[in-house]
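User
Please review the sequence:
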Amino acid sequence: MLAELRELDVNNPVSRLRAFVAEGGYAAGSRLPPERELTDRLGMTRSTLRKALDQLERDGAIWRHVGKGTFVAAGVDASRPGGALVELGRQLTPFRMMRARLAIEPAIAKEAAINASGAALTQMNVAMERAHAASNWQDYETQDDIFHRTIAEASDNLLLLSLFDQLNVVRRAVAWGNVVRQSVKPAADHLSFREHEAIGAALEARDPDLAYEAMRSHLRSVSARLFSEV
């Protein structure tokens, strides 16, 4: 298998990593080797490997748990981006996608308020700080993704985390063409900043009901801004 991997385009580390996962017999829920081993087996630098891992995570093919490792996600074929979940996303309207988030993510936030580790709370706060400092919408949205996924990870429930990751694969596949940005980056008073802070405060206070309502309020606010509906 390693010989086949080396025959792949050396300038496409994402494809090489996908092939490694697909051909290595890693089933859903399997943990991948540590980064040091992957860099040796794939012939990549650690920086290149991490970028490839980031892409597979964005595609929903893998998920990462701080302190535990990198795992193959359930419900997708790691050899191609998203699989059936991507196809599902293409059939959903953005509004339906937001309704699904409203049904699932507040409950995840509630569990996170009960189970979040100190490391998870720190990672959540770092994501908020980086979102504030973002110089463009793409960087902001990357940190927004990290913020929400960190909360799912903080639930300390692999099933909820897997559900969140699958939801995220579908979300990314939804056609958001009707969303138009009016600025280069979020304004300093962008509502999501304050809403994220409210969610973070609820988690740090270990208040599950407040965390549920803060997440629900945030998602309803986002829905209203995007679609003029709640």
Remarks:
- The CA atoms of residues 61 and 78 lie 5 Å apart.
